[in-house]
């Protein structure tokens, strides 16, 4: 190998990232977890809006949009339980990444 | 490291093993980042694209068929990312600069600073496809066939790109062909 070829090889070796770089790996996994969290949260919010829309369309008298009307006690309770379960699921899924 | 090991890691990562996914990232990050560092506009853009490459790979593990090595497959994704990044100027606004500040590099000293600068400039003047072929074959030790697969180019085109690019870089160092 000539001197210039040796120098060219050295140039391509120069400024290479480290062979093992925990910071890069963690940055990728952290970015992936963040995206998963946004996706699950978006899904939960979209599901909630869809569910609220369905309730409002199918049973206008029970809709949260007509809160001034008397609501059966079970509806808000069920909503809170379902929302809590969805958030717990999203949190658990995002935690799995690490 | 063998292709069989990689295939096993991909299969395990596809089944949800984060430990195997981490191992896969660790094995191939150097090749992907070095490749992107030589063809992207800047170090921070290269790091951002490298992270995006692995995120895309994570979401497309089920599409990996094993026709090419994992390294070739990842570099093919990186190449598509680099090309599309050229078309989207607003990418610059979403870079993770805090991370880039912490990147550690290997610095051999067989080459002077002036020669390094001259070679870097010469490399940046090569057409993008030629630069990518040169980097894969001369820096990452890809065979011409693997580089052709990663860049989605005919084998003859890659061979010609590498020969011409290499001659131009050697000319910068004073070698006459």
Secondary structure blueprint with pairings:
The complex is a heterodimer of chains A (98) and B (177).
Chain A: H1 3-13, E1 16-17, H2 22-58, H3 74-96
Helix pairs in contact in A: 2-3
Chain B: H1 3-14, H2 18-39, H3 43-59, H4 70-87, H5 97-100, E1 105-106, H6 113-125, H7 128-139, H8 144-151, H9 155-172
Helix pairs in contact in B: 1-2, 2-3, 2-4, 2-7, 3-4, 4-8, 6-9, 7-8, 7-9, 8-9
β-strand percent of chain A reads: under 5%
Pattern of helices and strands of chain A = HEHH
Largest sheet of chain A: none
CATH homologous superfamily of the largest domain in chain B - what is it? Answer: RNA polymerase sigma factor, region 2, helix turn helix motif
Largest interface (CB < 8 Å): A-B, 32 and 42 residues
Low-confidence regions of chain B: none
Radius of gyration of chain B: 17 Å
SS elements, strand count of chain B:
1
The overall pLDDT average of chain A reads 74
Beta-strand portion of chain B reads: under 5%
Keywords:
A: 98 residues, mainly alpha, B: 177 residues, Rna Polymerase Sigma Factor, Chain: A, Arc Repressor Mutant, subunit A, 9 helices
Characterize this entry briefly.
The complex is a heterodimer of chains A (98) and B (177). Chain A has 98 residues and is mainly alpha-helical.
